[in-house]
Cellulose synthase (UDP-forming) (Asanoa ferruginea), 645 residues
Amino acid sequence: MGVGRRQHAPVESDEAPIYVPAPPSDEEKYSYFQKPKPWIFAWIFVSALGILYGYVMVAVKSPLTTPALLVLPIMVMPVLVNFWLRSHRPRLTLEQHQEVLRRYRPDPADTVDIWVPICGEPIPVLRNTCRTVAALEWHAPVMRYLLDDGDPRREVEEMALEFGFVYVRRRDAVPGREPREGERGWLKKAGNMINAFELSMGRFGVVFDADFAPRPDFLKETVPYMQAYPRTGIVQTAQYFDISPWMNYVQRGAGSLQEVFFRWIQPARDVWRAAICAGTNVVYRRDAVESVGGFARVPLGEDVNSGVKLWTGGWETRYLPLALAKGVAPDTWGAITNQQQRWCRSSMLLMTEKHFRDAKFNWQQRMAFWAAFLYYMASAGLLLTAPFPTLTMLWFFPDKVLPHNYLPMLPALLATLLIFPMMARGWRPEIFRLCMINSGCHVIAIGDALRAKVQEWVPTGAVTKAAKTKKKGAPERVSRLLRTWVIVVQVLLWSGLALRLPEYGIGTLWATALLAAVQLYMVAPLLLPSYGIRPSTPPLEVTDRGPAVAAAERAWSATRSAAAQRQVGWDAPPPAWSTHPDQRHPRHNHPHPVQAHHGGPPPVGHAPGPYGPAPRPPVRRSPHDAVAYPGPHQPDPPHHLERAR
Protein backbone atom coordinates (compact mmCIF):
# COMPACT_ATOMS: atom_id res chain seq x y z
CA MET A 1 0.00 0.00 0.00
CA GLY A 2 1.18 3.54 -0.55
CA VAL A 3 1.55 6.12 2.15
CA GLY A 4 2.29 9.72 1.28
CA ARG A 5 4.89 11.89 2.96
CA ARG A 6 2.48 14.60 4.15
CA GLN A 7 -0.52 13.52 6.20
CA HIS A 8 -1.27 15.67 9.21
CA ALA A 9 -4.19 16.82 11.33
CA PRO A 10 -5.60 20.38 11.59
CA VAL A 11 -6.83 22.02 14.74
CA GLU A 12 -8.51 25.31 15.49
CA SER A 13 -6.17 27.38 17.66
CA ASP A 14 -4.79 30.86 18.09
CA GLU A 15 -1.38 29.42 18.95
CA ALA A 16 1.45 28.93 16.47
CA PRO A 17 1.22 25.84 14.25
CA ILE A 18 2.88 22.75 15.72
CA TYR A 19 4.94 20.26 13.76
CA VAL A 20 3.32 16.83 13.58
CA PRO A 21 4.85 13.83 11.80
CA ALA A 22 3.28 11.95 8.93
CA PRO A 23 3.51 8.16 8.83
CA PRO A 24 6.64 7.02 6.98
CA SER A 25 6.36 6.83 3.21
CA ASP A 26 6.93 3.62 1.25
CA GLU A 27 10.49 4.72 0.52
CA GLU A 28 11.18 5.56 4.17
CA LYS A 29 9.62 2.30 5.32
CA TYR A 30 12.38 0.15 3.80
CA SER A 31 15.24 2.66 4.05
CA TYR A 32 16.95 0.84 6.95
CA PHE A 33 17.38 -2.33 4.91
CA GLN A 34 20.79 -2.09 3.25
CA LYS A 35 23.73 -4.20 2.20
CA PRO A 36 26.45 -4.63 4.84
CA LYS A 37 29.24 -2.05 4.65
CA PRO A 38 32.00 -3.42 6.89
CA TRP A 39 34.53 -0.94 5.51
CA ILE A 40 32.59 1.90 7.18
CA PHE A 41 33.06 0.38 10.61
CA ALA A 42 36.65 -0.54 9.83
CA TRP A 43 37.32 3.15 9.10
CA ILE A 44 35.60 4.22 12.32
CA PHE A 45 37.66 1.65 14.20
CA VAL A 46 40.90 3.00 12.71
CA SER A 47 39.76 6.55 13.55
CA ALA A 48 39.21 5.58 17.17
CA LEU A 49 42.60 3.91 17.34
CA GLY A 50 44.24 7.09 16.04
CA ILE A 51 42.66 9.20 18.77
CA LEU A 52 43.54 6.64 21.44
CA TYR A 53 47.13 6.55 20.17
CA GLY A 54 47.45 10.31 20.57
CA TYR A 55 45.98 10.13 24.06
CA VAL A 56 48.42 7.41 25.14
CA MET A 57 51.44 9.23 23.70
CA VAL A 58 50.59 12.28 25.80
CA ALA A 59 49.83 10.26 28.93
CA VAL A 60 53.26 8.58 28.94
CA LYS A 61 55.18 11.87 28.63
CA SER A 62 55.67 12.16 32.37
CA PRO A 63 54.97 10.25 35.59
CA LEU A 64 52.60 13.08 36.48
CA THR A 65 50.43 12.39 33.42
CA THR A 66 50.59 8.58 33.56
CA PRO A 67 47.50 8.26 35.85
CA ALA A 68 45.45 9.39 32.84
CA LEU A 69 45.94 5.85 31.49
CA LEU A 70 43.57 4.56 34.18
CA VAL A 71 40.55 5.67 32.13
CA LEU A 72 41.86 3.92 29.01
CA PRO A 73 39.90 0.66 29.55
CA ILE A 74 36.66 2.65 29.67
CA MET A 75 37.54 4.29 26.35
CA VAL A 76 38.89 1.17 24.58
CA MET A 77 36.28 -1.45 25.48
CA PRO A 78 33.32 0.19 23.66
CA VAL A 79 35.49 0.60 20.55
CA LEU A 80 36.41 -3.09 20.50
CA VAL A 81 32.95 -4.41 21.37
CA ASN A 82 31.11 -2.20 18.88
CA PHE A 83 33.50 -3.11 16.06
CA TRP A 84 32.95 -6.78 16.84
CA LEU A 85 29.16 -6.34 16.95
CA ARG A 86 29.00 -4.55 13.60
CA SER A 87 31.31 -6.88 11.69
CA HIS A 88 28.59 -9.47 10.94
CA ARG A 89 25.82 -9.66 8.38
CA PRO A 90 22.31 -8.60 9.49
CA ARG A 91 20.00 -11.30 10.76
CA LEU A 92 17.07 -10.21 8.59
CA THR A 93 16.95 -9.26 4.91
CA LEU A 94 14.06 -7.70 3.04
CA GLU A 95 13.46 -10.95 1.15
CA GLN A 96 13.26 -12.91 4.41
CA HIS A 97 10.84 -10.35 5.83
CA GLN A 98 8.57 -10.66 2.82
CA GLU A 99 8.66 -14.44 3.14
CA VAL A 100 7.44 -14.22 6.75
CA LEU A 101 4.50 -12.08 5.62
CA ARG A 102 3.62 -14.49 2.80
CA ARG A 103 3.51 -17.45 5.18
CA TYR A 104 1.30 -15.76 7.75
CA ARG A 105 -2.16 -17.30 8.14
CA PRO A 106 -4.69 -14.78 9.49
CA ASP A 107 -6.14 -15.92 12.80
CA PRO A 108 -9.32 -14.29 14.17
CA ALA A 109 -7.94 -14.89 17.68
CA ASP A 110 -4.99 -12.56 16.99
CA THR A 111 -6.65 -9.77 18.96
CA VAL A 112 -4.62 -6.63 19.59
CA ASP A 113 -4.58 -4.02 22.34
CA ILE A 114 -3.00 -0.70 21.39
CA TRP A 115 -1.68 1.37 24.27
CA VAL A 116 -0.79 5.05 23.86
CA PRO A 117 0.64 6.39 27.14
CA ILE A 118 0.43 10.18 27.36
CA CYS A 119 1.54 12.75 29.93
CA GLY A 120 0.94 16.37 29.00
CA GLU A 121 1.90 16.38 25.31
CA PRO A 122 0.41 19.11 23.05
CA ILE A 123 -3.11 18.45 21.83
CA PRO A 124 -2.21 18.68 18.09
CA VAL A 125 0.49 16.04 18.57
CA LEU A 126 -1.90 13.74 20.45
CA ARG A 127 -4.59 14.26 17.85
CA ASN A 128 -2.19 13.31 15.08
CA THR A 129 -1.20 10.14 16.94
CA CYS A 130 -4.78 9.16 17.74
CA ARG A 131 -5.91 9.63 14.15
CA THR A 132 -3.10 7.54 12.68
CA VAL A 133 -3.49 4.82 15.33
CA ALA A 134 -7.23 4.71 14.62
CA ALA A 135 -6.41 4.08 10.94
CA LEU A 136 -4.44 0.88 11.61
CA GLU A 137 -5.65 -2.05 9.53
CA TRP A 138 -6.13 -5.52 10.98
CA HIS A 139 -8.38 -8.51 10.35
CA ALA A 140 -9.03 -9.32 14.03
CA PRO A 141 -10.56 -7.24 16.85
CA VAL A 142 -8.54 -4.26 18.05
CA MET A 143 -8.95 -2.23 21.23
CA ARG A 144 -7.28 1.16 21.59
CA TYR A 145 -6.39 2.71 24.95
CA LEU A 146 -5.37 6.29 25.69
CA LEU A 147 -3.45 6.08 28.98
CA ASP A 148 -3.49 9.55 30.50
CA ASP A 149 -1.00 10.16 33.30
CA GLY A 150 -0.94 13.95 32.96
CA ASP A 151 -3.10 16.71 34.36
CA PRO A 152 -6.79 16.29 33.42
CA ARG A 153 -7.71 17.88 30.08
CA ARG A 154 -11.23 17.75 28.71
CA GLU A 155 -9.92 17.92 25.13
CA VAL A 156 -8.07 14.62 25.64
CA GLU A 157 -11.20 12.83 26.83
CA GLU A 158 -13.20 14.19 23.89
CA MET A 159 -10.45 13.11 21.52
CA ALA A 160 -10.54 9.59 22.94
CA LEU A 161 -14.25 9.36 22.13
CA GLU A 162 -13.80 10.82 18.66
CA PHE A 163 -11.08 8.39 17.61
CA GLY A 164 -12.39 5.28 19.30
CA PHE A 165 -10.09 4.93 22.33
CA VAL A 166 -10.80 3.73 25.82
CA TYR A 167 -9.77 6.66 28.01
CA VAL A 168 -7.86 5.29 31.01
CA ARG A 169 -6.70 7.37 33.92
CA ARG A 170 -5.28 5.91 37.10
CA ARG A 171 -6.86 7.15 40.31
CA ASP A 172 -5.14 10.03 42.08
CA ALA A 173 -2.86 9.29 45.01
CA VAL A 174 -3.98 10.34 48.46
CA PRO A 175 -2.34 13.70 49.25
CA GLY A 176 0.51 13.52 51.70
CA ARG A 177 1.85 10.07 50.86
CA GLU A 178 3.75 8.35 48.08
CA PRO A 179 1.65 6.92 45.22
CA ARG A 180 0.78 3.26 45.51
CA GLU A 181 0.14 0.62 42.89
CA GLY A 182 -2.78 1.60 40.69
CA GLU A 183 -2.42 5.29 41.52
CA ARG A 184 -1.23 8.02 39.19
CA GLY A 185 2.48 8.61 39.62
CA TRP A 186 3.32 5.11 40.83
CA LEU A 187 6.36 4.02 38.75
CA LYS A 188 5.49 6.70 36.15
CA LYS A 189 5.30 5.15 32.65
CA ALA A 190 6.02 1.64 33.95
CA GLY A 191 3.06 1.89 36.32
CA ASN A 192 0.89 3.25 33.53
CA MET A 193 1.76 0.26 31.33
CA ILE A 194 1.25 -2.23 34.15
CA ASN A 195 -2.20 -0.77 34.80
CA ALA A 196 -3.11 -0.92 31.10
CA PHE A 197 -1.93 -4.51 30.81
CA GLU A 198 -4.19 -5.55 33.68
CA LEU A 199 -7.19 -3.76 32.16
CA SER A 200 -6.82 -5.31 28.70
CA MET A 201 -6.71 -8.85 27.40
CA GLY A 202 -5.76 -9.04 23.72
CA ARG A 203 -3.38 -11.72 22.52
CA PHE A 204 -0.89 -9.01 21.56
CA GLY A 205 -0.19 -5.54 22.90
CA VAL A 206 1.22 -2.64 20.87
CA VAL A 207 2.74 0.53 22.33
CA PHE A 208 3.09 3.88 20.59
CA ASP A 209 4.55 6.88 22.34
CA ALA A 210 2.32 9.94 22.28
CA ASP A 211 4.18 11.66 19.43
CA PHE A 212 4.45 8.77 16.94
CA ALA A 213 2.37 8.40 13.79
CA PRO A 214 2.21 4.76 12.59
CA ARG A 215 1.54 3.53 9.08
CA PRO A 216 -1.80 1.75 8.54
CA ASP A 217 0.05 -1.51 7.80
CA PHE A 218 1.97 -1.57 11.10
CA LEU A 219 0.18 -4.65 12.45
CA LYS A 220 0.37 -6.48 9.12
CA GLU A 221 4.15 -6.04 9.08
CA THR A 222 4.84 -7.09 12.68
CA VAL A 223 2.31 -9.53 14.13
CA PRO A 224 3.13 -12.28 11.57
CA TYR A 225 6.48 -12.71 13.34
CA MET A 226 4.64 -13.84 16.45
CA GLN A 227 3.14 -16.70 14.45
CA ALA A 228 6.37 -17.52 12.61
CA TYR A 229 8.53 -17.57 15.77
CA PRO A 230 6.60 -18.94 18.77
CA ARG A 231 9.35 -18.04 21.27
CA THR A 232 9.42 -14.39 20.21
CA GLY A 233 7.99 -12.31 23.04
CA ILE A 234 8.69 -8.84 21.60
CA VAL A 235 8.83 -7.50 18.06
CA GLN A 236 10.60 -4.13 18.04
CA THR A 237 10.60 -1.86 14.98
CA ALA A 238 12.66 1.22 14.23
CA GLN A 239 12.07 4.72 15.50
CA TYR A 240 12.12 7.13 12.58
CA PHE A 241 12.24 10.93 12.52
CA ASP A 242 12.04 13.70 9.95
CA ILE A 243 15.35 15.53 9.56
CA SER A 244 14.89 18.89 7.81
CA PRO A 245 16.85 22.15 7.41
CA TRP A 246 14.22 24.15 9.33
CA MET A 247 14.92 22.13 12.50
CA ASN A 248 17.40 23.37 15.11
CA TYR A 249 20.62 21.48 15.75
CA VAL A 250 19.17 19.55 18.70
CA GLN A 251 16.22 18.15 16.76
CA ARG A 252 18.30 17.40 13.65
CA GLY A 253 21.10 15.81 15.63
CA ALA A 254 18.82 13.76 17.87
CA GLY A 255 17.12 12.32 14.79
CA SER A 256 20.47 11.53 13.17
CA LEU A 257 21.84 9.79 16.26
CA GLN A 258 18.68 7.69 16.56
CA GLU A 259 19.04 6.73 12.91
CA VAL A 260 22.56 5.48 13.58
CA PHE A 261 21.22 3.33 16.41
CA PHE A 262 18.18 1.85 14.66
CA ARG A 263 19.81 1.55 11.24
CA TRP A 264 23.17 0.11 12.28
CA ILE A 265 23.45 -0.81 15.95
CA GLN A 266 20.12 -2.57 16.54
CA PRO A 267 20.56 -4.87 13.49
CA ALA A 268 24.08 -5.67 14.75
CA ARG A 269 22.70 -6.58 18.18
CA ASP A 270 19.90 -8.59 16.59
CA VAL A 271 22.48 -10.85 14.92
CA TRP A 272 23.20 -12.20 18.40
CA ARG A 273 19.53 -12.07 19.45
CA ALA A 274 20.35 -9.20 21.77
CA ALA A 275 18.17 -6.41 20.37
CA ILE A 276 16.73 -4.13 23.02
CA CYS A 277 13.11 -3.18 23.52
CA ALA A 278 12.78 0.58 22.91
CA GLY A 279 9.28 1.01 24.38
CA THR A 280 7.48 2.39 21.33
CA ASN A 281 6.58 0.98 17.91
CA VAL A 282 6.72 -2.38 19.62
CA VAL A 283 4.53 -5.51 19.84
CA TYR A 284 4.32 -7.65 22.99
CA ARG A 285 3.00 -11.20 23.25
CA ARG A 286 0.64 -11.33 26.23
CA ASP A 287 1.52 -14.93 27.08
CA ALA A 288 5.19 -13.97 27.28
CA VAL A 289 4.59 -10.97 29.53
CA GLU A 290 2.26 -12.92 31.82
CA SER A 291 4.73 -15.82 32.07
CA VAL A 292 7.32 -13.57 33.75
CA GLY A 293 4.89 -11.77 36.04
CA GLY A 294 4.15 -8.71 33.92
CA PHE A 295 6.17 -5.69 32.87
CA ALA A 296 9.26 -4.75 34.86
CA ARG A 297 8.47 -2.69 37.95
CA VAL A 298 11.20 -0.10 37.67
CA PRO A 299 11.21 3.71 38.02
CA LEU A 300 13.05 4.19 34.70
CA GLY A 301 13.63 2.17 31.55
CA GLU A 302 10.56 -0.05 31.74
CA ASP A 303 11.07 -0.94 28.07
CA VAL A 304 14.60 -2.36 28.10
CA ASN A 305 14.04 -3.89 31.55
CA SER A 306 10.86 -5.62 30.39
CA GLY A 307 12.69 -6.96 27.35
CA VAL A 308 15.41 -8.41 29.54
CA LYS A 309 12.84 -9.76 32.00
CA LEU A 310 11.22 -11.75 29.20
CA TRP A 311 14.56 -13.41 28.58
CA THR A 312 14.35 -14.94 32.05
CA GLY A 313 11.30 -16.86 30.80
CA GLY A 314 13.00 -18.00 27.62
CA TRP A 315 11.46 -15.37 25.32
CA GLU A 316 13.47 -13.28 22.90
CA THR A 317 13.22 -9.81 21.39
CA ARG A 318 13.29 -9.64 17.60
CA TYR A 319 14.19 -6.43 15.77
CA LEU A 320 12.70 -5.45 12.41
CA PRO A 321 14.62 -2.66 10.60
CA LEU A 322 11.36 -1.23 9.30
CA ALA A 323 10.29 2.40 9.65
CA LEU A 324 6.60 1.85 10.39
CA ALA A 325 6.02 4.90 12.61
CA LYS A 326 7.49 8.39 12.67
CA GLY A 327 7.98 10.45 15.79
CA VAL A 328 9.07 13.88 17.00
CA ALA A 329 12.69 14.21 18.12
CA PRO A 330 13.43 16.43 21.15
CA ASP A 331 13.99 20.05 20.12
CA THR A 332 14.57 21.91 23.40
CA TRP A 333 17.21 21.93 26.11
CA GLY A 334 14.84 20.43 28.65
CA ALA A 335 13.64 17.69 26.33
CA ILE A 336 17.08 16.48 25.26
CA THR A 337 18.68 16.63 28.71
CA ASN A 338 15.81 14.83 30.42
CA GLN A 339 15.81 12.17 27.72
CA GLN A 340 19.56 11.49 27.78
CA GLN A 341 19.80 11.54 31.56
CA ARG A 342 16.87 9.12 31.78
CA TRP A 343 18.30 6.71 29.20
CA CYS A 344 21.73 6.63 30.83
CA ARG A 345 20.34 6.21 34.34
CA SER A 346 18.05 3.39 33.23
CA SER A 347 21.06 1.61 31.72
CA MET A 348 22.85 1.89 35.07
CA LEU A 349 19.78 0.50 36.84
CA LEU A 350 19.54 -2.42 34.41
CA MET A 351 23.01 -3.63 35.36
CA THR A 352 21.88 -4.01 38.98
CA GLU A 353 18.53 -5.73 38.35
CA LYS A 354 18.05 -9.37 39.27
CA HIS A 355 16.39 -10.15 35.94
CA PHE A 356 19.52 -8.99 34.11
CA ARG A 357 21.67 -11.35 36.14
CA ASP A 358 19.17 -14.20 35.73
CA ALA A 359 18.50 -13.72 32.00
CA LYS A 360 19.52 -16.71 29.90
CA PHE A 361 22.11 -14.84 27.85
CA ASN A 362 25.11 -16.39 26.18
CA TRP A 363 28.37 -14.46 26.43
CA GLN A 364 27.81 -12.66 23.10
CA GLN A 365 24.40 -11.40 24.19
CA ARG A 366 25.63 -10.31 27.59
CA MET A 367 28.52 -8.50 25.91
CA ALA A 368 26.05 -6.66 23.66
CA PHE A 369 24.18 -5.37 26.71
CA TRP A 370 27.42 -4.38 28.39
CA ALA A 371 28.31 -2.45 25.22
CA ALA A 372 25.41 -0.09 25.89
CA PHE A 373 26.54 0.36 29.49
CA LEU A 374 30.13 0.99 28.37
CA TYR A 375 28.96 3.49 25.76
CA TYR A 376 27.52 5.72 28.47
CA MET A 377 30.66 5.35 30.56
CA ALA A 378 32.85 6.25 27.57
CA SER A 379 30.62 9.19 26.66
CA ALA A 380 30.95 10.61 30.16
CA GLY A 381 34.68 9.93 30.17
CA LEU A 382 35.14 11.64 26.82
CA LEU A 383 33.81 14.92 28.18
CA LEU A 384 36.48 14.89 30.87
CA THR A 385 39.40 13.46 28.86
CA ALA A 386 39.01 15.12 25.44
CA PRO A 387 40.81 18.36 26.45
CA PHE A 388 43.60 16.46 28.22
CA PRO A 389 46.09 15.96 25.32
CA THR A 390 45.96 19.52 23.98
CA LEU A 391 46.07 21.28 27.35
CA THR A 392 48.81 19.01 28.66
CA MET A 393 51.06 19.55 25.65
CA LEU A 394 50.37 23.29 25.46
CA TRP A 395 51.09 24.01 29.11
CA PHE A 396 53.77 21.45 30.02
CA PHE A 397 55.45 20.31 26.79
CA PRO A 398 55.13 23.26 24.38
CA ASP A 399 58.38 22.40 22.60
CA LYS A 400 56.81 19.07 21.53
CA VAL A 401 53.71 20.68 19.96
CA LEU A 402 54.19 20.23 16.20
CA PRO A 403 51.66 20.18 13.33
CA HIS A 404 52.46 16.59 12.35
CA ASN A 405 51.45 15.44 15.85
CA TYR A 406 47.86 15.80 14.69
CA LEU A 407 48.21 13.28 11.84
CA PRO A 408 46.72 10.40 13.93
CA MET A 409 43.53 12.49 14.08
CA LEU A 410 43.22 12.68 10.29
CA PRO A 411 41.08 9.49 9.92
CA ALA A 412 38.68 10.86 12.55
CA LEU A 413 38.41 14.21 10.76
CA LEU A 414 37.68 12.43 7.47
CA ALA A 415 35.10 10.26 9.21
CA THR A 416 33.36 13.40 10.45
CA LEU A 417 33.23 14.93 6.98
CA LEU A 418 32.66 11.82 4.82
CA ILE A 419 31.80 8.63 6.71
CA PHE A 420 29.21 9.65 9.28
CA PRO A 421 27.09 11.53 6.70
CA MET A 422 26.82 8.19 4.87
CA MET A 423 25.42 6.53 7.99
CA ALA A 424 22.59 8.94 8.81
CA ARG A 425 20.63 11.74 7.21
CA GLY A 426 21.27 15.28 8.35
CA TRP A 427 24.72 14.66 9.80
CA ARG A 428 26.52 17.97 10.26
CA PRO A 429 29.58 18.95 12.30
CA GLU A 430 27.25 20.72 14.77
CA ILE A 431 26.14 17.29 15.92
CA PHE A 432 29.26 17.18 18.09
CA ARG A 433 27.77 20.02 20.13
CA LEU A 434 24.82 17.73 20.79
CA CYS A 435 27.20 14.89 21.62
CA MET A 436 28.80 17.14 24.22
CA ILE A 437 25.37 17.87 25.70
CA ASN A 438 24.69 14.13 25.80
CA SER A 439 28.03 13.54 27.53
CA GLY A 440 27.12 16.08 30.20
CA CYS A 441 23.83 14.27 30.78
CA HIS A 442 25.68 10.98 31.11
CA VAL A 443 28.09 12.44 33.68
CA ILE A 444 25.11 13.60 35.76
CA ALA A 445 23.35 10.23 35.43
CA ILE A 446 26.45 8.27 36.43
CA GLY A 447 26.88 10.56 39.42
CA ASP A 448 23.29 9.81 40.39
CA ALA A 449 23.96 6.09 40.02
CA LEU A 450 26.96 6.28 42.34
CA ARG A 451 24.73 7.98 44.93
CA ALA A 452 21.83 5.57 44.29
CA LYS A 453 19.68 8.54 43.26
CA VAL A 454 16.91 8.33 40.67
CA GLN A 455 15.92 11.58 38.94
CA GLU A 456 12.16 12.09 38.59
CA TRP A 457 10.88 10.76 35.26
CA VAL A 458 9.88 13.54 32.83
CA PRO A 459 8.30 12.71 29.44
CA THR A 460 10.39 13.96 26.52
CA GLY A 461 7.53 15.74 24.77
CA ALA A 462 5.56 16.95 27.78
CA VAL A 463 4.41 20.55 28.05
CA THR A 464 3.06 20.27 31.57
CA LYS A 465 3.95 22.72 34.33
CA ALA A 466 6.35 20.18 35.81
CA ALA A 467 8.25 19.98 32.58
CA LYS A 468 8.55 23.77 32.37
CA THR A 469 9.67 24.52 35.89
CA LYS A 470 13.29 25.36 36.56
CA LYS A 471 13.69 23.21 39.61
CA LYS A 472 17.04 21.50 40.02
CA GLY A 473 16.38 18.69 37.59
CA ALA A 474 18.52 17.34 34.78
CA PRO A 475 18.32 20.48 32.57
CA GLU A 476 19.68 22.84 35.23
CA ARG A 477 22.30 20.41 36.51
CA VAL A 478 23.62 19.67 33.04
CA SER A 479 23.65 23.39 32.26
CA ARG A 480 25.80 24.18 35.29
CA LEU A 481 28.19 21.34 34.54
CA LEU A 482 28.68 22.12 30.86
CA ARG A 483 28.96 25.88 31.21
CA THR A 484 31.52 25.56 33.98
CA TRP A 485 33.48 23.01 31.98
CA VAL A 486 33.39 25.05 28.77
CA ILE A 487 34.61 28.20 30.53
CA VAL A 488 37.44 26.41 32.33
CA VAL A 489 38.66 24.55 29.23
CA GLN A 490 38.42 27.54 26.90
CA VAL A 491 40.22 29.86 29.32
CA LEU A 492 43.05 27.34 29.71
CA LEU A 493 43.22 26.69 25.97
CA TRP A 494 43.29 30.28 24.75
CA SER A 495 45.47 31.59 27.55
CA GLY A 496 47.91 28.79 26.78
CA LEU A 497 47.94 29.78 23.12
CA ALA A 498 48.43 33.43 24.02
CA LEU A 499 51.35 32.46 26.25
CA ARG A 500 53.09 30.19 23.73
CA LEU A 501 52.51 31.99 20.42
CA PRO A 502 55.11 34.75 21.01
CA GLU A 503 57.74 32.13 21.81
CA TYR A 504 57.01 29.39 19.26
CA GLY A 505 55.20 31.28 16.50
CA ILE A 506 52.16 30.49 14.38
CA GLY A 507 54.22 28.24 12.12
CA THR A 508 54.42 25.73 14.96
CA LEU A 509 51.05 26.27 16.61
CA TRP A 510 48.79 26.84 13.59
CA ALA A 511 47.20 23.37 13.82
CA THR A 512 46.49 23.83 17.52
CA ALA A 513 45.03 27.29 16.92
CA LEU A 514 42.86 26.02 14.05
CA LEU A 515 41.41 23.17 16.10
CA ALA A 516 40.89 25.53 19.04
CA ALA A 517 38.86 27.85 16.80
CA VAL A 518 36.72 24.94 15.58
CA GLN A 519 36.17 23.83 19.17
CA LEU A 520 35.17 27.34 20.20
CA TYR A 521 32.60 27.43 17.39
CA MET A 522 31.16 24.16 18.68
CA VAL A 523 30.94 24.98 22.37
CA ALA A 524 30.45 28.77 22.56
CA PRO A 525 26.66 28.59 21.90
CA LEU A 526 26.28 26.57 25.10
CA LEU A 527 27.12 29.73 27.04
CA LEU A 528 24.17 31.62 25.54
CA PRO A 529 20.84 31.78 27.41
CA SER A 530 19.27 29.70 24.62
CA TYR A 531 22.22 27.27 24.39
CA GLY A 532 22.26 28.14 20.70
CA ILE A 533 18.93 26.36 20.22
CA ARG A 534 16.79 28.52 17.98
CA PRO A 535 13.03 27.91 17.93
CA SER A 536 12.14 25.54 15.13
CA THR A 537 9.68 27.13 12.72
CA PRO A 538 8.25 24.40 10.51
CA PRO A 539 6.74 25.21 7.12
CA LEU A 540 2.96 25.17 7.10
CA GLU A 541 2.68 21.92 5.14
CA VAL A 542 4.27 19.89 7.97
CA THR A 543 2.19 21.34 10.80
CA ASP A 544 -1.15 20.57 12.37
CA ARG A 545 -2.70 23.12 9.97
CA GLY A 546 -1.13 21.88 6.76
CA PRO A 547 -3.33 21.16 3.71
CA ALA A 548 -2.56 17.44 3.79
CA VAL A 549 -3.78 17.28 7.36
CA ALA A 550 -7.00 19.02 6.47
CA ALA A 551 -7.62 16.41 3.76
CA ALA A 552 -6.91 13.57 6.19
CA GLU A 553 -9.22 15.14 8.76
CA ARG A 554 -12.05 15.47 6.23
CA ALA A 555 -11.58 11.85 5.22
CA TRP A 556 -11.72 10.80 8.86
CA SER A 557 -14.90 12.81 9.45
CA ALA A 558 -16.51 11.23 6.40
CA THR A 559 -15.60 7.77 7.65
CA ARG A 560 -17.09 8.52 11.06
CA SER A 561 -20.31 9.81 9.54
CA ALA A 562 -20.71 6.77 7.31
CA ALA A 563 -20.04 4.42 10.20
CA ALA A 564 -22.52 6.22 12.43
CA GLN A 565 -25.20 5.89 9.77
CA ARG A 566 -24.58 2.15 9.72
CA GLN A 567 -24.80 2.18 13.54
CA VAL A 568 -21.37 0.59 13.77
CA GLY A 569 -19.18 1.80 16.59
CA TRP A 570 -16.48 -0.83 16.44
CA ASP A 571 -13.41 -1.86 14.51
CA ALA A 572 -14.57 -5.43 13.89
CA PRO A 573 -17.55 -7.72 14.55
CA PRO A 574 -17.67 -9.47 17.90
CA PRO A 575 -15.60 -12.68 17.99
CA ALA A 576 -16.86 -15.96 19.34
CA TRP A 577 -15.55 -15.18 22.80
CA SER A 578 -16.45 -12.50 25.29
CA THR A 579 -14.90 -10.65 28.19
CA HIS A 580 -17.82 -11.42 30.46
CA PRO A 581 -16.39 -13.05 33.60
CA ASP A 582 -18.23 -16.29 32.84
CA GLN A 583 -17.64 -16.31 29.08
CA ARG A 584 -14.00 -15.31 28.62
CA HIS A 585 -11.80 -17.22 26.24
CA PRO A 586 -9.78 -19.79 28.22
CA ARG A 587 -6.53 -18.21 26.91
CA HIS A 588 -7.48 -14.90 28.48
CA ASN A 589 -8.78 -15.78 31.91
CA HIS A 590 -7.78 -12.38 33.21
CA PRO A 591 -8.57 -11.08 36.71
CA HIS A 592 -9.62 -7.64 35.40
CA PRO A 593 -12.10 -8.12 32.53
CA VAL A 594 -12.75 -5.02 30.44
CA GLN A 595 -16.25 -4.41 29.19
CA ALA A 596 -16.04 -0.70 28.45
CA HIS A 597 -16.42 0.04 24.77
CA HIS A 598 -13.94 2.36 23.16
CA GLY A 599 -16.06 4.74 21.20
CA GLY A 600 -15.10 4.75 17.54
CA PRO A 601 -17.67 6.79 15.68
CA PRO A 602 -20.27 7.80 18.27
CA PRO A 603 -22.22 4.57 18.83
CA VAL A 604 -25.97 4.43 18.72
CA GLY A 605 -27.06 3.27 22.15
CA HIS A 606 -24.63 0.72 23.56
CA ALA A 607 -23.56 -1.30 20.56
CA PRO A 608 -21.60 -4.48 21.37
CA GLY A 609 -17.86 -4.26 20.80
CA PRO A 610 -15.21 -6.66 19.64
CA TYR A 611 -14.47 -7.67 23.21
CA GLY A 612 -17.99 -8.59 24.21
CA PRO A 613 -21.11 -6.96 25.68
CA ALA A 614 -21.74 -3.27 26.19
CA PRO A 615 -20.61 -1.63 29.43
CA ARG A 616 -22.85 -1.29 32.42
CA PRO A 617 -23.65 2.24 33.65
CA PRO A 618 -20.96 3.99 35.69
CA VAL A 619 -21.38 4.44 39.41
CA ARG A 620 -19.70 6.80 41.87
CA ARG A 621 -17.42 5.23 44.44
CA SER A 622 -14.69 7.72 45.36
CA PRO A 623 -13.15 10.84 43.83
CA HIS A 624 -9.86 8.95 43.81
CA ASP A 625 -11.14 6.03 41.71
CA ALA A 626 -9.47 5.09 38.46
CA VAL A 627 -11.20 6.11 35.26
CA ALA A 628 -11.58 3.94 32.18
CA TYR A 629 -14.32 4.95 29.80
CA PRO A 630 -14.73 5.80 26.14
CA GLY A 631 -14.92 9.56 26.29
CA PRO A 632 -16.17 12.68 28.11
CA HIS A 633 -19.24 13.29 30.25
CA GLN A 634 -18.69 10.12 32.32
CA PRO A 635 -16.76 11.30 35.37
CA ASP A 636 -17.13 8.01 37.22
CA PRO A 637 -15.71 4.65 36.19
CA PRO A 638 -17.88 1.60 35.55
CA HIS A 639 -17.78 -0.45 38.72
CA HIS A 640 -16.18 -3.42 36.99
CA LEU A 641 -13.14 -1.22 36.17
CA GLU A 642 -12.57 0.03 39.70
CA ARG A 643 -9.49 -1.38 41.33
CA ALA A 644 -9.17 -2.16 45.02
CA ARG A 645 -7.22 0.48 46.83
